[in-house]
Structures are given as C-alpha cells and as structure tokens.
Design brief:
four-stranded antiparallel β-sheet, alpha+beta, single chain
Length: 308
Amino acid sequence: MQLANRSRLLILLSFLAVMATWCTPAFAQQSSGTRTISGVVTDLAGEPLIGANIIVKDDPSNGTITDFDGNFTLQAPAQGTLQIFYIGYQAQEIAIAGKSVFQIQLSEDSNTLDDIVVVGYGVMRKSDVISSVTTIKADKMTKAATLDVGEMLRGRAAGLQITIANAGPDGSSNIQIRGTNSISGGTDPIVVADGVVVGSINDVNPNDIASVEVLKDAAAQAIYGARAANGVILITTKRGSTGAARVNYQGYYGIQNVNRNFDVYTPEEFVQYKREAYRTTNNNQYGEDTDVFSQLELESIRNGQFID
C-alpha cells in the first residue's frame, strides 16, 4: 500500500516536471513577443494627423492616439496587424511583421456623407445639406480666363445664376441664388470673406481665394439674419503653410489675326463724296464748296492738310 502511494507521488512529480518544461519556454516566448513600436501618421500631403487611433486588431483594448506631430508609441506583438482610424479618412490595416518604426499615410474618404456639418445655428448631416451648401474649389474657378470672380462662378453651382451687368471697365456680374428673392428691394447675396462682410465679390483678389461656399437654404443662412434673404457666398482665402516656398503662376494668351483692313476714302475721294451727297439732297444740283464744307474744311482742302 505504501509502495503504491510512493509510485503515485513519483508519477505526479514527473508530470509536473514535464509541464514546467513546456510552460517555461512558452511564457518566455510570449514575454519576448511584445515590443515597443512607434511611428507617424500623416495625410497624403505629409501633414500630421492629430488624434488618429492606432489599435492592435486582435486586441482592441490595446491602442493609442497620435500626438500634435502625428507621432505614436505602442506596445504590440511582433506579429499582428495594426488598424488606423481617423475621421474623414479611409481606415487602413498594416501588418506589423516584426517592424518597429512605421510611416503611415491615410487617404481622404470622399464618401463621408454622415459627417456632421455646422450650418447657421444648428448641425446637420452632410448628406442632408449637399443640395443647400455648394463648395467650389479655386482650381475649378481659375480655369476661366477672366478677373471677374462672378464669371468664374458661372456654371459651377446649381441654382447660381450669373448675368453680365455691364461691359465697362468697372463692370461686374449680377449674382442671384435660386431666382429673385427680396426683402429690401435688392437681389444680390451678401459676400463674406473670412468672416467679414465685403461690399462686392470683386473686392477679393481671385488669386487669393482658396474656396467658395454658396449657402442657399434658410438653415445655412440663419446666422446672417435678414441680410441673407438672397443667399450667402462665403469666401475662404489662402493661408501660408510650413515647408518649402512655392510660387504659383497662371497665365493666358490669345492670338488674333486681321482678315482684311477696311477700305477707306482718300482725302480727295472724301471731298468728292461730300459734294455728291450735297447734290442728292438739292434736286440733283451741285452747290458751291462754301455751301458744302465748313470754313475749317475749306482751309484744310486749300492747304492739303488732311487727317488719316
């Protein structure tokens, strides 16, 4: 009986020894498999994305966010997958594959119709205000060979009607949003450049414009009160950015050819033309030159001094 108990004790100790042999390498492998990784998250232009989420795919509780420079640090396994999320950008998955440093670039998501947009005194989903707020980029506007900002907007937004006011040097375009609407008798929308109401849309240099937003519904116009009864045009101007200096140039050129010159009278032919004109109005009778020409014209004819 005592021998049986001793045999069982030896078998149990042997089993524990084998289990310890298996578990020790596994524990060591698990400890050595977690490492510190770091990296930076930017957009396609190289600008850092602040507050982007980086999560280990198989361990959602293990994650971090980027700092003001787009940098992050995270404890992650040597083998696994990182998930990167940022509002307005397409989510991305990257295999860790034993790497420690990552350079991650996210692309903008053009299908973010559920993003929240501030309009007037409230907020709405972007999908609900697409028909009421239209954004026009500067690169689309400057394709028109004109310095009139109103002409640049022609055909760029639904419900925006542009007509020529006058063709003089100081002439500008008439702008109407969704037809003629008036409280005080005017039909022009108000123009707001960087939060400041300006007198005319042509008071802003076209080359300084970054984007133009056209507000067409009451919710978007509410913050501007009765002045916005005919709509609002918001202008955002360009801002300086860090990095290397950049110079943008836009130029236009055209070629005109004169098909033919007009045929004009010589001085002598013009003198005879006036004599014939006098005859046709005086019963087919020629008159004296003093009756046909003024005193100054008579002196020019005698002296041969003519104007080309």
